[in-house]
């Protein structure tokens, strides 16, 4: 499940796209055309800088994400989910959340 672009500010998406060769320890490089198209999409659809920015460009560290996912963070701390990036642990196919 891909994160919606609104979860990170447009500026943070730009920074993230410039470092795809070292994307959180993985080489996620793209050809120039794909990179440019994706970057333009993220620029148009990124969130505001308020609440959607993180020093590390990690969506799971933005204040918006943290405030909306407190129960998921508790589940992570208890070992009930492996990662906050595992959206499908709580969000089902129809877009609903399971109660935590």
What's the overall geometry? globular
Number of domains: 2
Strand content: under 5%
| Fraction of residues in H or I helices | 25-40%
Number of strands: 0
Radius of gyration: 14 Å
Separation of termini?
Answer: 19 Å
Low-confidence stretches: none
Q: Give the helix tally.
A: 4
Average pLDDT taken over every residue: 85
Keywords summarizing the entry:
single chain, 100 residues, 2 domains, 4 helices, globular
SSE topology:
Layout: H1 10-18, H2 32-45, H3 63-68, H4 70-77
Helix pairs in contact: 1-2
Describe this structure in words.
The protein has 100 residues and is mainly alpha-helical. The chain has two domains: 5-68, no CATH class; 70-100, no CATH class. Helices cover 37% and strands 0% of the residues. It has four helices and no strands. Helix 1 packs antiparallel against helix 2 (32-45). The longest helix is centred in the middle third of the chain and has 14 residues, at 32-45. It starts with 9 loop residues before the first helix and ends in a 23-residue tail after the last helix.
Summarize the structure.
By secondary structure, this protein is an all-alpha fold. The chain is 37% helix and 0% strand.
């Amino acid at each position: 499940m891909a994160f919606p672009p609104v979860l990170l500010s447009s500026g943070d998406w730009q920074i993230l796209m410039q470092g795809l060769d070292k994307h959180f320890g993985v080489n996620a490089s793209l050809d120039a055309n794909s990179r440019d198209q994706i970057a333009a999409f993220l620029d148009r659809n990124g969130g505001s800088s308020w609440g959607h920015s993180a020093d590390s460009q990690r969506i799971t560290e933005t204040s918006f994400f943290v405030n909306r996912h407190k129960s998921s963070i508790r589940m992570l701390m208890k070992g009930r989910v492996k990662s906050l990036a595992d959206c499908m642990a709580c969000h089902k196919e129809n877009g609903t959340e399971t109660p935590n």
